[in-house]
Amino acid sequence: MLVDSHAHLDMYSAEDLPQVLARAYAAGVHTILAIGIGDGPHQMHRALEIAESITSPDLPTIYASVGIHPQEAASANLDNLIRLKSLAANPRCIAIGEIGLDYYHVENPDTSVQHAAFIAQLRIAATARKPILIHCRTSELATPEAKQKFGPGGPDAAWEDLLALLAEHWQPHSLPGIMHCFSGTVDQARRSIDAGFYLSFAGNLTYPAAKTIREAAAFAPAGRILVETDAPFLAPIPHRGQRNEPALVTLTAAALAELRGISSEALATLTTANFHTLFPTTGN
Known about the structure:
alpha/beta; TIM Barrel; 39% helix
């Protein structure tokens, strides 16, 4: 069995979702973490609604997160933070996220706004004693306008800012988290692991140009790796460019298993155990 540790189930239509989940279960994906960011804070609740409404023994077990994405950082006002805190208290909500920094799109909020929203959500997660799901996107491949806005600190500024904020506002609480869709270097992987994080690998691991990601995936300790789809985004090879879905996490898992020199079955057992270690309330 496999766990898809990051999927945006609320982005599927009500008509499509049952079939998407049925295909996942048939493929051996029996647990999914649904990400509760919606199209903004007003839709944070949707992943929880899905998690609470899917109870069939023939479909995956679904858990949820709740969070304000860095692209929506300007909406991290008091009312929305109070709402986030309330949703986080739901037992079906097992994580806060995805939260973090995004220096890729020029229209994203200024760094100071992103930092403030991130810190506020770290405090909520620490109070709730729940792991965090990190989104970190650099300006390395961004437009010249975005590089001018976010790039004074260099192409890895988002990573450096992220790790500094975590060191100050998260690590003192001795709580874990996930670096979602990990796309960093071996050094960034090492620093993330040292900070208590798991690395979750998505379909971009399979892309021909993803040499750096594969190096990090080979480096990561066995006890700190997870797999995800980020569905409906980032479909793995040979489905790249198509709509992704949780069933396809099997392809990313197979690629990660080959990279690490183990069987797909061993990789499934390993990553499932890692997920349940990180989220003990999900059981085994």
